[in-house]
Amino acid sequence: MNVVVHVAEALAAVLVLAGYARYRRVRWLTEQAFIHVKALIAAEQHEAYKALRRRYHAQQRNRLRGAGQDSGVHQAGVVRLADPRRHVRLKIDRVPWPAVRHVQAVTVRWTPLVPYPSADWLAKLAEAVAHFLAIDVAGVERTRLSMRRKRVTFVRRAGSTVPDHLPLEPLPDEDVADAG
Prior knowledge:
With 180 residues, this protein is an alpha+beta fold. Helix content is 49%, strand content 14%. It has one domain (2-64, 82-160). Strands 1-2-4-3 form a 4-stranded antiparallel sheet. It is flat, with a radius of gyration of 24 Å. The model has no long low-confidence stretch (mean pLDDT 83).
């Protein structure tokens, strides 16, 4: 009986560690996807804008209370990192250790600082998502576009897979190519 309890506890600990490892891996993949699209969706600029607004309103509240006087009008720049999970959602196959090839869909949420999304902007966003998925732009299909919710979903087309390894073919000798 005692051995069964220890085995069950060990199994539970292994499952918890495996679940945490998978959570960290999915979060890392989300951050990688976010890095590819963050300039297009103006995520960090929007976070900085919100931080400046919060700072401004806090200063106004303090002035009304009579707390502290500012000596100047200069506002230092604010650098804020946006939360990738707020702007990028991944649909991943159910595997214990997901990789980029297991990502089936990427949903990107843009900020109000992006002008009205044009076809050119959506094409650039599709290129960024395809670059993250390590496939050609033709392998990415836009399925849902919600202007009201400011999000778009890109799905990997059937047949567009990421190779497990790259074939190692010898490169032609540059000296031989120049001589011929």
